Amino acid sequence: MPIDILMPALSPTMEKGNLTKWVKKEGDTVKSGDILAEIETDKATMEVEAVDEGVLGKILVAEGTQDVAVNTPIAVILGEGEDASAVSAPAAKPAESAAPAPSPTADAAPAPQAAVPSAVANPPTVSIQPDPEVPAGTEMVTMTVREALRDAMAEEMRRDGDVFVMGEEVAEYQGAYKITQGLLQEFGAKRVVDTPITEHGFAGMGVGAAMAGLKPIVEFMTFNFAMQAIDHLINSAAKTLYMSGGQIQCSIVFRGPNGAAARVGAQHSQDYAAWYSHIPGLKVVAPYTAADAKGLLKAAIRDPNPVIFLENEILYGHTFEVPKLDDYVLPIGKARIARSGKDVTLVSWSIGMTYALKAAEELAKQGIEAEVIDLRTIRPMDVPTIIESVKKTGRCVTVEEGWPQSGVGSEIVAQLMEKAFDYLDAPVLRVTGKDVPMPYAANLEKLALPSVAEVIEAVRAVTYR
Amino acid sequence: MAARKSTARTEAAPAGVPTFTKEQELLAYREMLLIRRFEEKAGQMYGMGLIGGFCHLYIGQEAVVIGMQMAMKQGDQVITGYRDHGHMLATGMESRGVMAELTGRRGGYSKGKGGSMHMFSIEKQFFGGHGIVGGQVSLGTGLGFANHYRDNGAVSVTYFGDGAANQGQVYESFNMAELWKLPVVYVIENNKYAMGTSVNRASAQTDFSKRGSSFNIPGEQVDGMDVRAVKAAGERALAFAREGKGPYILEMLTYRYRGHSMSDPAKYRSKEEVQKMRTEHDPIEQVRARLLEGGVTEDDLKKIDAEIREIVNDAADFATHDPEPDPSELYTDIVR
Ligand SMILES: Cc1ncc(C[n+]2csc(CCOP(=O)(O)OP(=O)(O)O)c2C)c(N)n1
Ligand SMILES: [Mg+2]
């Protein structure tokens, strides 16, 4: 039986790629492991290796074809005694016009990428109100969160020779998630430092260097691995100013992707916002938009305190408008009204905003006007902005991917109970990740995360509709 | 070839690798080929979107786990990191259950809840599948502690990578293991890279067999592409640990052919380097060549190849059609 070679997915989020080159020609014999072709994704060029043995019977997608959908047959391998005339070649089409990629196992298989909740799979289409920090008439440029973070670091490194970046794969590999792309080339190996896999050690070194007056940016490949180092983040970084009676400050940024990624299981998928939020002496920032990522990372690098800067892997590729200003620095500790409304206040941050904004859009169609607050900083928390909104709406729902018990939402609820009880017309509800370790199976993972539907349901409950 | 403990120096591997009987060669060939074909299939299924997240293939390193397995005794435990599919197949875990875990289905070893990096089998004494680099080293030392406590004669075989070897907890574990003479064989799979970082860019001491020397733990460097050398070294190390002499380090010199995970473009090494390993040191090809030399025919091997393909295709088919876990599983197995 001729065997179809399908356009492979090379990452959990890849949907299409370019077929840049065929390494084998029609008629070539192929063995398992032979390189057949090269394909290109937004992040990298990769090789397609043969799994089956035989003869490359027919190439179905010519080299140079752009946007080939994952799972499109790109060639056919013939077994012994088969010939190419047996192959009825489907016309190769680029992704836009292609029928849904034929899945040989359509019955039982989840659709590829099913694990990425639909609310976050695509860049947000929802509109966000302009930031009052940005002067009217400022030119805006479109960029990804990834680029905004890189630009923030590059700008601060140009400005201050004491700023350096350190972490696993930050230099030669250009960042495991490509956030430090180009920094080694511009600033050299002295200031862009590849470390061994020794989180406890290099986090402590970072704190020591900060005690000596340098301004390290310590990248954790993901915040899951910062648990190896958390003692230094809390016991060394957060407490030194206090313990030294104000003599020794620790100006350091710990940054990296936080929260659930897609299908990476329990040890690689958790949200640490609440953990660090608990600690006096730390500032905790968790931006959603590219503009906030840039303005707040610059502020974090300049801040004289240790700042935990929580990014999100799924947001890295999302694009937003970023003001084109020479030095765009935002204040840490200030929330932003992302959408105005009078009926209910939704409070979220980071990727939680994707659920909140989508829900607000849906709710508007049902005649409920939600005000959406992007907290941006978890600690110090901008409680006054939340209270101002609740005075107007009388109702509040918090949205986060983290666990419910002692979560950031719990803190918001407590603050409102203490400071805004009289303005509330309904109990504050929390929409959170489920109280379970993150499962791997696509269907369970989806259930474990919050959803737009859950946000809408919570809003209907607090508005009694 | 007993290692001399007092000197704690690197033991030289014996000159001349021991030979295998034809049966041993055939066993090694079949077992290594199963891992190779299984991993190729997993890579393909990842490409089709049937497997998600990270997927770290073991292709190239097969001789390490098979040689060790051939040296181990019933009851010995195995623990490793996230590049774990080969270790599981080596312990005799079923291809179907491993593949179904990769696709996140209810027939997987962790009911679909663990994924590629987190599988376990108490029946086969396989203790995972761990995603935090270096984490398994303390855990594996703890398995050794339990063996010592129960005096059950079992040894914990604790695998980790050259990158993991730089984590602090490795040395905390080494110290305790030697201090309390725990039966642990530390198998360092030196495949020359930790993600995109070559060994010499991350390690001040690149001879990992010496990493236990300040604790007086003996170590050996082993040709991890030669299954016979692995088995022989494994036997020495296991015997040493089993006799109550304490831990032992085996540095396996090996190589991974594929990227770190599926989405690694592997720009940090040349194609020639990979090709040279594949053509000159492939662990399976070495056995294959010896088998053919020893009178086994191409047809005999083709038959084995076909059987292995059958097993792997069956596993893939099962893992594709097995249903996802029941939604109620979200809330099970959290606490007891
Ligand atoms: C504590 C921790 N830090 C970082 C990572 C990310 N990471 C996963 S594998 C890996 C490289 C490990 O290399 P090595 O130990 O040589 O094993 P190999 O992948 O070569 O088998 C890194 C940095 C992690 N999983 N855990
Ligand atoms: Mg390695």
From TrEMBL, chain A:
<dbReference type="InterPro" id="IPR011053">
    <property type="entry name" value="Single_hybrid_motif"/>
</dbReference>
<feature type="region of interest" description="Disordered">
    <location>
        <begin position="88"/>
        <end position="135"/>
    </location>
</feature>
<keyword id="KW-0450">Lipoyl</keyword>
<comment type="function">
    <text>The pyruvate dehydrogenase complex catalyzes the overall conversion of pyruvate to acetyl-CoA and CO(2). It contains multiple copies of three enzymatic components: pyruvate dehydrogenase (E1), dihydrolipoamide acetyltransferase (E2) and lipoamide dehydrogenase (E3).</text>
</comment>
<dbReference type="InterPro" id="IPR005475">
    <property type="entry name" value="Transketolase-like_Pyr-bd"/>
</dbReference>
<dbReference type="GO" id="GO:0006086">
    <property type="term" value="P:pyruvate decarboxylation to acetyl-CoA"/>
</dbReference>
<feature type="domain" description="Lipoyl-binding">
    <location>
        <begin position="2"/>
        <end position="78"/>
    </location>
</feature>
<comment type="subunit">
    <text>Heterodimer of an alpha and a beta chain.</text>
</comment>
<dbReference type="InterPro" id="IPR027110">
    <property type="entry name" value="PDHB_mito-type"/>
</dbReference>
<comment type="function">
    <text>The pyruvate dehydrogenase complex catalyzes the overall conversion of pyruvate to acetyl-CoA and CO2.</text>
</comment>
<keyword id="KW-0560">Oxidoreductase</keyword>
<protein>
    <recommendedName>
        <fullName>Pyruvate dehydrogenase E1 component subunit beta</fullName>
        <ecNumber>1.2.4.1</ecNumber>
    </recommendedName>
</protein>
<dbReference type="GO" id="GO:0004739">
    <property type="term" value="F:pyruvate dehydrogenase (acetyl-transferring) activity"/>
</dbReference>
<dbReference type="Pfam" id="PF00364">
    <property type="entry name" value="Biotin_lipoyl"/>
</dbReference>
<dbReference type="Pfam" id="PF02780">
    <property type="entry name" value="Transketolase_C"/>
</dbReference>
<dbReference type="Pfam" id="PF02779">
    <property type="entry name" value="Transket_pyr"/>
</dbReference>
<feature type="compositionally biased region" description="Low complexity">
    <location>
        <begin position="88"/>
        <end position="124"/>
    </location>
</feature>
<keyword id="KW-0670">Pyruvate</keyword>
<dbReference type="InterPro" id="IPR000089">
    <property type="entry name" value="Biotin_lipoyl"/>
</dbReference>
<dbReference type="InterPro" id="IPR009014">
    <property type="entry name" value="Transketo_C/PFOR_II"/>
</dbReference>
<dbReference type="InterPro" id="IPR029061">
    <property type="entry name" value="THDP-binding"/>
</dbReference>
<keyword id="KW-0786">Thiamine pyrophosphate</keyword>
TrEMBL record, chain B:
<feature type="domain" description="Dehydrogenase E1 component">
    <location>
        <begin position="31"/>
        <end position="327"/>
    </location>
</feature>
<keyword id="KW-0560">Oxidoreductase</keyword>
<dbReference type="InterPro" id="IPR001017">
    <property type="entry name" value="DH_E1"/>
</dbReference>
<dbReference type="InterPro" id="IPR017597">
    <property type="entry name" value="Pyrv_DH_E1_asu_subgrp-y"/>
</dbReference>
<keyword id="KW-0670">Pyruvate</keyword>
<keyword id="KW-0786">Thiamine pyrophosphate</keyword>
<dbReference type="InterPro" id="IPR029061">
    <property type="entry name" value="THDP-binding"/>
</dbReference>
<dbReference type="InterPro" id="IPR050642">
    <property type="entry name" value="PDH_E1_Alpha_Subunit"/>
</dbReference>
<comment type="function">
    <text>The pyruvate dehydrogenase complex catalyzes the overall conversion of pyruvate to acetyl-CoA and CO(2). It contains multiple copies of three enzymatic components: pyruvate dehydrogenase (E1), dihydrolipoamide acetyltransferase (E2) and lipoamide dehydrogenase (E3).</text>
</comment>
<dbReference type="GO" id="GO:0004739">
    <property type="term" value="F:pyruvate dehydrogenase (acetyl-transferring) activity"/>
</dbReference>
<dbReference type="Pfam" id="PF00676">
    <property type="entry name" value="E1_dh"/>
</dbReference>
<feature type="region of interest" description="Disordered">
    <location>
        <begin position="315"/>
        <end position="336"/>
    </location>
</feature>
<comment type="subunit">
    <text>Heterodimer of an alpha and a beta chain.</text>
</comment>
<dbReference type="GO" id="GO:0006086">
    <property type="term" value="P:pyruvate decarboxylation to acetyl-CoA"/>
</dbReference>
<protein>
    <recommendedName>
        <fullName>Pyruvate dehydrogenase E1 component subunit alpha</fullName>
        <ecNumber>1.2.4.1</ecNumber>
    </recommendedName>
</protein>
